[in-house]
Automatic annotation (TrEMBL):
Transmembrane spans: none
Organism: Manduca sexta
WD repeat residue numbers: 16-50, 58-89, 100-141, 142-183, 226-267, 268-300
Position of the signal peptide: none
InterPro entries (alphabetical): WD40/YVTN_repeat-like_dom_sf, WD40_PAC1, WD40_repeat_CS, WD40_repeat_dom_sf, WD40_rpt, WDR55/POC1
Protein name per Swiss-Prot or TrEMBL: WD repeat-containing protein 55 homolog
PROSITE patterns in alphabetical order: WD_REPEATS_1, WD_REPEATS_2, WD_REPEATS_REGION
Protein family (similarity comment): Belongs to the WD repeat POC1 family.
Amino acid sequence: MDNKTSYPEPCLEKQLKGHRNGITALYFSPNEQQIASGSLDNSVLLWDLRGTMRSYRFQGHDEAVMDVTFSPSGKYMASASRDKTVRLWVPTVTGSTGMFKAHSQTVRSVQFSSDGTKILTASDDKIVKLWSTDKHKFISSYVGHTNWVRCARISNDGSVIASCSDDKTTRLWSLDSGECIHTYKDQRGHGTYLAWHPSGCYVAVATSQGNVKLYDIRTHNLVQYYSIHNDAVNQVAIHPSGSYILTGSKDGKMKILDLLEGHPIYTLSGHSGSVNAVSFSTSGDYFASAGEDKLVFIWKTNFTEQGNEKENVAQNMSMVPRSASQISKTSSALKGRNQVVKKR
């Protein structure tokens, strides 16, 4: 490979074992010293990443935990469950600090707004809802989806909500007015997860067909399309620089996509079974993956080390990324510590 497209490969640093069933969600604390994981075993585990690898188990949900997140300050965690509730926790031995029934069916996703004052939820009851963090007071509903809502996320500036549903649409909503601004339709698969680009101009949508789509919310154009997995993409995470996307798939693989080059640069394997959750740390120096095998892997990112100039471009988003279609098969493999890293 030439220098332009060669990257230091990510390396697996830690494996965390403690859940009794498949893991559904991961989220780093803002200070990167802890990571929370949610599982089908009805619990949230909070792992200390500072050397001890000790974990605290938070129990209270009656059914599977579908999503977990930290507040921007790191003071609280929130978890969403099949038991139709959202629970708030203090991320210490203190534990539970509150619970509210958020929906009439499974709560699939939960997120704090960037100022920490609001909580966004999405559910199988087809509705997206906004709540106040303080006293968990209901603020508004976003109604229009005609099937389960898999994921809903607020843009960094707090003005727009994006949601994806089994009704094969991804919708943009005005947070304040509650109106649907735009609907992106997919003829084949449905969105399983989505993430905002740090610029606030793009939304990445993972699909049940093994694809990742990047939409420009200003023009509503599909600006990038990656057909990269052999089964559903369960989650996507965007690097804080805005230059890379990390995917986790039901096919047991993860991919790292270079958004400015417009193609995948790595395939990572190591998990047995579906990769259900992926997450970057706040700085982007680390990322985590987890899935059906009940294990959390912590990885050192590394591949950003040669991409500083590129990251500045991505930060400004002054160039529209080139679209990517069918990607050629992997060329070379690097094996190590229970994982395989493949260069594209």
